[in-house]
Write a structure and sequence with these properties.
Layout lengths: L7 H34 L6 H4 L50 E9 L4 E8 L4 E8 L5 E9 L8 E9 L1 E7 L4 E8 L6 E9 L4 E3 L1
Antiparallel strand pairs: 1-8, 2-7, 2-9, 3-6, 3-8, 4-5, 4-7
Length: 208
């Protein structure tokens, strides 16, 4: 007589599988309690997270934090951001000129201890370029400046201010309509002659 098949061989693997599942769950619970909760959420019920240094890994995030974008660089008028290699782009100053272009060369002699002013009339946005030097390398005090129309006595702006120089050069796009030009002061005991070369969109040139 044959015996019915035994279920012992099937029951044993099921018991081993159940035992393995329970063991894995226990290990996961321990890892959750000891490592994940302290490190990720700052929850440390057993104190093991602090002992193991895992609590230091937790850094609370600000509520509703929104990633910040870097501020975009200011775009100059016209939208261009081009610049030469290794340079920081300067402010663009350009203006269509309405006055006629002219050039002048003047010789100005300063008496000992005296000063002389030579001026031009410039409209706002008009350009003036210049270069001057003394004939024998003598040094003078120099103030290249401007004053608006109907200016008060103390209402002016110095653009280039120098002491004891024998030459200078520069360019100006007038920030306001008014009188712009040069003042030289001779602090020596001898007459000094200055040779000025100027060009631009000014209407006249006169001593003041």
């Amino acid at each position: 007589m044959s015996l019915p098949p035994s279920n012992a061989g099937v029951a044993a693997p099921k018991k081993e599988l159940l035992r393995g599942t329970l063991l894995a769950a226990a290990v996961a619970a321990v890892l959750l309690t000891v490592a994940i909760l302290p490190a990720e959420y700052g929850i440390d019920p057993t104190g093991a997270g602090k002992a193991l240094g895992l609590s230091r890994l937790h850094s609370p995030a600000a509520p509703h934090a929104v990633p910040l974008k870097a501020a975009a660089p200011a775009v100059p008028p016209g939208g261009s951001t081009v610049s030469a290699p290794g340079e920081v782009r300067a402010v663009t100053i350009a203006s269509k000129q309405t006055a006629a272009y002219r050039t002048d060369t003047r010789e100005i002699t300063l008496a000992p201890g005296k000063g002389v002013e030579l001026k031009t009339h410039l409209a706002k946005g008009a350009a003036l370029m210049f270069s001057w030097k003394t004939t024998r390398g003598e040094v003078l005090d120099h103030d290249f400046h401007g004053e608006p129309v109907n200016a008060k006595n103390d209402e002016f702006e110095s653009f280039i201010l120098e002491d004891e120089v024998s030459q200078s050069r520069g360019v100006l796009i007038a920030p306001f309509t008014g009188v712009h030009g040069w003042y030289w002061k001779n602090r020596t005991d001898e007459p000094v002659t200055v040779v000025l070369q100027a060009s631009g969109f000014y209407s006249d040139m006169f001593k003041k």
